[in-house]
């Protein structure tokens, strides 16, 4: 079934539509400088297709939250949730086919990238029975798929870029149709932009962006100047869902508006009268406090002459030296014995392991450090130690047990494979049936059984495990360096 979204009119006043069914099979890239009307165009598309297809919006500036009032989109304020909770919400959105806006407003760019990565990865990795068609609109896509490393954490950039690449390159088979908008094509990763088959190019002024836009539209380079002359709200469209030849589109009106107000010229407050004196009644900046040790006069008056207190000196308003007693120090938390410390830490790690859904290690470490402070655990283990401890918790191992040989062998693998390897080692040491693919997928942080098979293949290539499959399809896994072997796993559970 075909459904057209009315984008606006062309030069002759004729309606220009966008074939929604074709868009779901292809993908769309929107480009234009700030003020060219990108957000207005996306809003027109979302309003025109609301109620026909599920919509998910990644909104870094909170521009699209007003869709909830007119069309019932669920607004998710990312600042109010942890990464694990955001991933859980994404899975529920996919399952229940709910239209939603993920508002990243108020987050630092690193946290925006981590949050968008966790959200998009969950949309991508849900079970096959939840692969319903959905438009996934990402505004300011150059933030989440940058062409080059910038002043952001490397783990956040890699996670976000990987999620965006999955959306645009592999999302179609899972029903996800990426619609990405960017201010500059030169700032957007090429492997993300290259997957779009439909284009709407708005006004841009830089030569490099005009030439790239002209190339994508199939225009000659001497025609690229036309992109600079476009008015606000005008776009050149091309693609199987729009037109076979570049067509000028003047985007129509919308029902909802953005939260951020457009700049409007207003008279200055002092235009009709005298302006206030901005330099009057200025208070001097406080002088730096110099810590010292002295006897307290109050203590001396009470007869406690041998007791000293911490005091500081500073200048008062008249420039005279005065003595100020510093606030008392914060009492230290009661120390924990080794047994109690290990018990509390294991409880925190077990809780994180139960809620694990593929979140990146730095995000989990942040939750771990908060839990340790609340439990009075000091000092908090570093990130490297946390990765090892969390892998053991995922594998169901107790730190009190001796696993030095298995950990040493697992060091030859990528760090994300340590937990599945330790789970296999645990079963092999007990000669118990090995974990099935579904269990390994959960520990590995994925919903793809294909990734689990590739992971096991990589372990076998490195020589840390040997997989044996019998004629009935049962699987056993041996660790030749340690002399351990799992019992046979049933064929139905291993496949």
TrEMBL record:
This protein's UniProt keywords: ATP-binding, Helicase, Hydrolase, Nucleotide-binding
InterPro entries: ATPase_Atu1862_pred, HerA-like, HerA_central, P-loop_NTPase
The keyword Glycoprotein is assigned to this record: no
Entry superkingdom: Bacteria
Example of a GO MF term: helicase activity
SUPFAM superfamilies xrefs: P-loop containing nucleoside triphosphate hydrolases (SSF52540)
All copies of domain Helicase HerA central, residue ranges: 15-73
Protein name: Helicase HerA domain-containing protein
Organism: Sphingomonas tabacisoli
């Amino acid at each position: 079934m075909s459904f057209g979204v009315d984008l606006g009119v062309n030069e002759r006043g004729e309606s220009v539509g966008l074939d929604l069914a074709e868009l779901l099979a292809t993908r769309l890239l929107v480009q234009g400088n700030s003020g060219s009307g990108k957000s207005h165009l996306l809003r027109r598309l979302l309003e025109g297709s609301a109620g026909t297809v599920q919509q998910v919006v990644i909104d870094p500036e909170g521009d699209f939250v007003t869709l909830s009032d007119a069309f019932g989109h669920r607004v998710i304020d990312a600042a109010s949730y942890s990464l694990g909770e955001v991933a859980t919400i994404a899975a529920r959105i996919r399952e229940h086919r709910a239209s939603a806006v993920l508002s990243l407003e108020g987050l630092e760019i690193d946290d925006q990238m981590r949050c968008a990565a966790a959200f998009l990865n969950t949309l991508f990795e849900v079970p096959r029975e939840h692969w319903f068609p959905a438009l996934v609109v990402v505004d300011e896509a150059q933030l989440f798929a940058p062409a080059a490393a910038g002043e952001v954490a490397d783990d956040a950039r890699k996670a976000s870029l990987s999620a965006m690449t999955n959306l645009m390159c592999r999302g179609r088979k899972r029903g996800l149709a990426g619609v990405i908008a960017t201010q500059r094509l030169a700032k957007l990763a090429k492997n993300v932009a290259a997957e779009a088959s439909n284009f709407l190019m708005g006004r841009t002024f830089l030569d490099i962006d005009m030439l790239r836009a002209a190339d994508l539209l199939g225009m000659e380079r001497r025609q690229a100047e036309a992109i600079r002359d476009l008015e606000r709200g005008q776009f050149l469209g091309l693609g199987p869902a729009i037109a076979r030849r570049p067509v000028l589109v003047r985007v129509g009106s919308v029902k909802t508006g953005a939260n951020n107000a457009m700049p409007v010229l207003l008279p200055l407050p002092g235009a009709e009268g005298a302006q206030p004196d901005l330099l009057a009644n200025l208070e001097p900046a406080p002088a730096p406090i110099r810590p010292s040790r002295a006897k307290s006069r109050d203590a001396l008056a009470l007869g406690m002459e041998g007791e000293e207190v911490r005091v500081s000196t500073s200048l008062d308003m008249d420039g005279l030296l005065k003595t100020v007693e510093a606030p008392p120090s914060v009492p230290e938390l009661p120390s924990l014995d080794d047994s109690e410390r290990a018990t509390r830490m294991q409880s925190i790690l077990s809780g994180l392991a139960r809620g694990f859904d593929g979140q990146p290690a730095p995000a989990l470490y942040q939750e771990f450090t908060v839990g340790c402070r609340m439990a009075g655990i000091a000092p908090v283990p570093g990130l490297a130690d946390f990765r090892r401890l969390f892998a053991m918790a995922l594998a169901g191992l107790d730190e009190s047990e001796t696993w030095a040989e298995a950990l040493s062998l697992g060091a030859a693998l990528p760090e994300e494979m340590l937990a599945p390897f330790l789970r296999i080692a645990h079963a092999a040491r007990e000669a118990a049936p090995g974990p099935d693919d579904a269990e390994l997928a959960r520990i590995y942080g994925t919903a793809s059984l294909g990734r689990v098979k590739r992971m096991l293949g990589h372990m076998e290539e490195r020589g840390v495990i040997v997989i044996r499959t019998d004629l009935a399809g049962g699987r056993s896994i041996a660790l030749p360096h340690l002399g351990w072997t799992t019992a046979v796993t049933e064929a139905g559970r291993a496949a």
